[in-house]
Amino acid sequence: MILSMTGFGKAQGNYKHTTYTAEVRSVNSKQLDLVLRLNSAIRDQEMDLRKKLASELVRGKVDISLYAEGVHEDKMLSINQELFDRYAEMLKSAAVKQGLDQTSLLANVLKLPEVMQSERMEKPQEEIDLAIEILFQAVKNFQEFRSAEGHQLKLDLVDRLNNIASLMTQVEQYEGERIKTVRQRMVDRFNDLKETVTLDESRLEHELVYFIEKFDVTEEKVRLNAHLKYFEETMNSDEAAGRKLGFISQEMGREINTLGSKANHAEIQKIVVQMKDELEKIKEQVLNVL
Q: Are 88 and 109 a contacting pair, CB within 8 Å?
C-alpha cells in the first residue's frame, strides 16, 4: 500500500465552553519538516508530541495546529493589596492637598502598574487529555486522506507500468526484421568491397555475430521486466515506498535508454520514446508518494 505525501485532516472537540480544533496539512518534501502550533493547554508537551508525530508522519512538509475558541479560563486575576494600599494613600494625600474629588480614586488605582496581577491557571488533566486526543484524531483523519490519495496514485502508476510492459512486447515484432536488415547491410557492403580488395569471409561471419550480439536487446528487456515487477511489489509493501520507487524508476530509465541506443530501427525508436514518456509520468507521480 502506498500513501500520498500530501493530505489534510481535521478534528474538533468541546471541553465545557471551549472548542478545540486541530488541523493537519502537508505538501511534498524530501524529509520530514514538521511545524507545530499548539494551544497553551499542551504546549509544554511539545517535545514528546514531536517524537510521536514524527514516527507516524515519516515525510513531507507538515503543518499541525491546535487552537481553542470560546471561554478561556487560562488566567486568574488578583489585586496586589500591598501595592494597592500604597498607591491609594499617595493619591488620597495628593487629592486632599489639591482639593480634588476622590470619587474615582479606586478605579484610578486599579489602572496603575502591577496593581492587577494575572496568574496562569493549570489546565485540568481531563482537558489536556481531550486536547491531545483531538490532535491525534486529526492526524488519523489526515492519514486516511493520505491513504485515499495513495490509492489513486497506485491506480495511475499500475496503468503506466502496464503501458510500458505492453510497449516492450511490441518491440519483439521488429527484432527479427532489424537483425536481418543489419546482416543484409553488412553482406552487401562486403560484396561491394570484394571487387576491389581481398576479404576474409570467415572474418565476415565473425563480425556479423559480434554486431548481432551488440544489437541484441534481450538482456535489457529481461531487466526492465524485473524492474516493473519489483516496482509493483514495492507499492504493495507496508513500508513507506516513495524513495525506493524513485530508485527503481531510475533503473528502469537506464534499461529504456540502453534499449533506445541499441534499437537501430525507426519503429523501435518510436516505441522507446513512448516508454520514456510513460516513465516520466511515473517519476512525477512518485514524487507525491510517501
A: yes
Helix (H) / strand (E) element for 118: namely: strand 116-120
Q: Which of 183, 253, 193, 244 is nearest to 224 (CA)?
A: 253
Query: Could you state, in order of their start, the residue ranges of all structural domains in the chain?
Result: 7-73+124-146, 75-120, 149-286
Cβ-Cβ contacts under 8 Å for 207 (sequence gap 6 or more): 186
**CB-CB contact of 3 with 147 (8 Å):** yes
24 touches 32 (CB < 8 A):
no
What pLDDT digit, counting tens, does each position of 161-199 carry?
999 999 999 988 887 777 667 666 666 666 666 666 565
Quote the pTM value. Answer: 0.73
Report the length, in residues, of the chain.
290
Closest CA to 146 of 56, 76, 218, 209: 56
7-73+124-146 CATH choice from 3.30.110, 3.40.50, 3.30.1120, 3.30.230: 3.30.230
